[in-house]
Amino acid sequence: MKKLLLILCGLCVMCNAYAGNNESQLNKDNNMAITVNLRYTGTGGNARSFAEEMMSSGTVDKIRAEKGNLRYEYYVSLDDPETVLLVDSWTDQAAIDAHHASPMMTTIAELREKYDLHMTVERYISTEAPKTEDRFIRK
Questions:
Q1: What is the pLDDT of residues 75-131, one digit of tens each?
Q2: What's the predicted TM-score (pTM) here?
Q3: Cα distance between residue 24 and residue 21, in whole Å
Q4: What region, left, alpha or beta, does residue 105 occupy, with left being phi > 0 and alpha being psi -120 to 50 degrees?
Q5: What are residue 42's phi and psi, to 5 degrees?
Q6: What's the chain look like in SS3?
Q7: Residue ranges of domains in the chain
Q8: Inter-residue contact 120 to 39 (CB < 8 Å)
């Protein structure tokens, strides 16, 4: 399952980069994109409220405008309504490091605390899907 998730995340990142969603393109210097999946879990709808406040405060737009950001999107779990998934993709580790040093991290940390969220984190490095996977992908 993790292998399939890695392939799907890699394809999504490559599609976003190919579509020109950011001035920094995937593999511009043969760097592989890094996708970080963060699962925020809370109670009483707090994870969803956190994501909504991140969006309504303009923080998400600022992050998406950062150099090297390829994707920053929240998804609500159908299996667990108290969990929200953030798919966060960057061109390289340097872009992530710059993001982590930005003032937005203070805002994010304060909101995580406000909503009493717990997190799990998974990191993936994109790779081109083998041609044998094409038959499973409807374009």
A1: 999 999 999 999 999 999 999 999 999 999 999 999 999 999 999 999 999 988 888
A2: 0.75
A3: 9
A4: alpha
A5: -145, -160
A6: CHHHHHHHHHHHHHHHHHCCCCCCCCCCCCCCCEEEEEEEECCCCHHHHHHHHHHHCCHHHHHHHCCCEEEEEEEECCCCCCEEEEEEEECCHHHHHHHHCCCHHHHHHHHHHHCCCEEEEEEEECCCCCHHHHHHCCC
A7: 2-136
A8: yes
CATH number for the region 2-136 comes to: 3.30.70.100
How many residues are there in the chain?
A: 139
**Residues 115, 77, 91, CA angle at the centre, nearest 5°?**
80
Could you tell me the strand order of the sheet in which 83-90 lies?
Answer: 69-76, 83-90, 34-41, 118-125
Q: What angle do helix axes 46-56 and 104-114 make, rounded to 10 degrees?
A: 150
59-83 residue pLDDT tens: 999 999 999 999 999 999 999 999 9
Instruction: Mark 52-90 as b/e (b = at least 16 C-beta within 10 Å).
Output: eebeeeebbeebeebebbbbbebeeeeeeebbbbbbbbb
